[in-house]
Amino acid sequence: MNNLHVRVADWQKDNADLRRIRETVFIAEQAVPPELEWDAEDPHAVHFLALDGDYAIGAARLLPDGHIGRVSVLKDWRGLKVGEALVTAAIKEAERRGLTRQMLSAQVHATPFYERLGFAVVSGEFLDAGIPHVDMVRQSR
What we know:
Blueprint: E1 4-9, H1 15-29, H2 34-37, E2 46-52, E3 55-62, E4 68-73, H3 82-96, E5 101-107, H4 111-116, E6 120-121, E7 126-128, E8 131-139
Antiparallel strand pairs: 1-2, 2-3, 3-4, 5-8, 6-8, 7-8
């Protein structure tokens, strides 16, 4: 796992890897309906892939307004700081673009993870695709 790296992905060229990861995590494991997983935001987002060597193991995206989302890591690589590397890459890209406020909707069980990365809960709990979520915000200094 010492060959982990995150890079900006190309929605067209890296589509198969992005789809494989998100379909495995969200559609297969979490039963998110495909029509909710894929949206019109994808072609306009900055996508990130986490790789172990040259094998894609995680994905995330950054929307033009600073929303980070679709953070997903394949089961065998969870707990190895892959998600942290993805979110950190998205934060850095947001800041590079002048987006000093990053936002996300976190699954409730993941709020401590995002809090460690500087996000704070700013909403009550709500259901998204049948899964409890909260909105979170991070303000860059």
